[in-house]
Each structure stands twice: as C-alpha cells, then as structure tokens.
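Why show two proteins at once? Because comparison is the fastest way to build intuition. When a single record is shown, students tend to memorize it. When two are placed side by side, the eye starts asking what differs. So, the first record is below.
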Amino acid sequence: MIFTYPALVHNDSDGLWLEFPDLPGCQTCSPSLKEIIIDAEEALECYIEEELEHSGVLPKPSDIKSINVTNDDFTTLIAIEIDLKKSKKSIRKTLTIPYWLNEKATAAGINFSKTLQEALLAKLAY
C-alpha cells in the first residue's frame, strides 16, 4: 500500500531539515536535497510501521496547499510503499458468516483471511 504525506523542507546554515506536519516527531536532516528526500522516505516508513504496529491509527494527511511556508522553505510530498501483508505478528479471529456465503466463497476458492484483511484496510482507508 502506498502512503503519501506532505513534508515541509527548511533551509538553515547547516543544510536542510524536513518535518512531516501531520506526524509529530517525524523529521530528518541532510546536506542536500537528494539525500533529504531519501532520508525522509526512510523516516516516513519507520514512523508508519511503528504507528500501525502499536496503535493501528494514522493521521489523515493534510492538503499540501494548507501548509504555511515562510522564507526559503518549501513543501513536497513524500510517498512510500509498505507491504502490509508482511506484518510481524498475526492474531487469530473467529467470525460468523451465513452458511450459504461460506459455501459459495469456499467453492470459489476465496482466501478468507486475505479477503478480510483487504476489506478492513479498505474500510480504514489505508
């Protein structure tokens, strides 16, 4: 799944530093624009994986046009792809569905766990 968040890049005497206004504490610094984008992708990935693992809740990304920019600062979008199927831990859930639905889904070869995960992700808007 692809996650995209706006970032604010600041210029200072030591180079650049980048922060994600929607993600408290998620920031990085680097001497060059190329490096800061790479570092920002890594910071974003770590932040999202940690949040999903612990709380399962991510803040909605702000509209990039709503971020206030001053001086030589600028905004950009940082996007990363995370394979949510490679979660570090799984849990077993027991659920109930109508008999007829079970029969049809089983006959069609549907993977119940995968289908439930996809439906939950869609419902949670990931």
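Second record. Ask yourself what differs from the first in the token line.
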Amino acid sequence: MPAFSAPPRQPGRHPMARSKSSNRWLDEHVNDPYVKMAQKDGYRSRASYKLLELLEKDRLLQGGMLVMDLGSAPGGWSQVVGRKLGNKGHVIATDILPMDPVEHVTFIQGDFTDEGVFQQILAALGGERPDLVLSDIAPNISGVDAADQASSIYLVELALDMARQVLKPGGSFVVKLFQGEGSDAYLKDLRTSFDKVVIRKPEASRPRSREVYVVGKGFKG
C-alpha cells in the first residue's frame, strides 16, 4: 500500500488551530447576552429576540392568526409565534432542513419552490390565507461577498414570490435582507405590493452584520 505524506505544516501553526475570525465568533457566541437569554428562556435560537422585537414594535401578531414561517429551522421564530398564539392561531413552517417539533406548528420539510412541497403547504393551509409570512432565510456563506450577496437576494425574492401567492390581502410580510448589491431594487419591488414598508435593525442583530429586517404591512393582493 503506498504511503501518504502529510501536507507541510505552516510554521508556528497547529494543524487544529482556529482562525482569528473563528475565535472571535466563538468568543462572541459564548459571551453573547442573547445566547444566554435564549438558554434561560428555552428558545432555540438567539434570533428569537429579533422577531420578538419586530412583533412588538410593528404590532404584527394577534390571536386567531395563521402565520407562515419560511426557512424555519431550527425553529426559533416558529417557537416564538407558537408560544404567543397558543391555541388561538397556527403556524405553518417549512425548511429544506429537518426541524424538531414545535407546539402549535405544522412543519413541512422540503424546498417550498418545489411543486410537490408547495402543494403540501397549500393542503396544510386548508384553503385559508396566512395573515403573516415570515422569512429569516440566509444562504450558506461561501466567503465570496458578491456570490453570497447574490444568493441572499435570490432567496428573499423567492420568499416575496411565495408571500405574493399566499398572503391574505391586508396581511404582513417580514424578511431578512442583507444590504448590498440588489437590495435597493428589492425594496423598490416590495413596495409595489405593500401599503407600508419599514426597515428595522433589532437590538439582537449584531452591529457589524449587514442584515436588516424589512416589514411590509397592508398587502395589496
């Protein structure tokens, strides 16, 4: 059997050493007050606090609502809405990744742009239209800024297309948007479908992140 030689090591660098950026992220995560709050409050994700702020600031949730959560895994946003609505509403959540069950939430695994998955979503809606469509979808980061931005815009366009197909007239839409190439054009397009559009930067959103949350209210149908 031929021998395999290990690649040469860089001087002074342990083969298992983390990059500075990885260490920074780990330090941030461990010391993040929202991570600690999520653990204390029993939420699956620190992102739960972003949605909690948006729901309160823009008064997006009322009893009896039907809510759709696009790109829902691991379930942080679905968990927030499920807890708030309880038996007085319902959440339809979907993601290509698996998601552990959440009370008051119906989860459908798959790509919502796939016709078969879309039909499953329609069946779960049971002829009703959501009052609120949420999307916290983000692309897998490649490290190439232009490609990552293009991917993120593609995903928010898919989310908006879905909202336009299913949302109840007068309903609301919340989507995560990364500011950069294509974001202004996206906002211009979104404003054609909603009476009011505002941009939010929740406290739980890290300051150095380019993410903002766009809230559209009064869907024109």
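One difference worth noting in the second protein: The longest strand covers residues 211-219.
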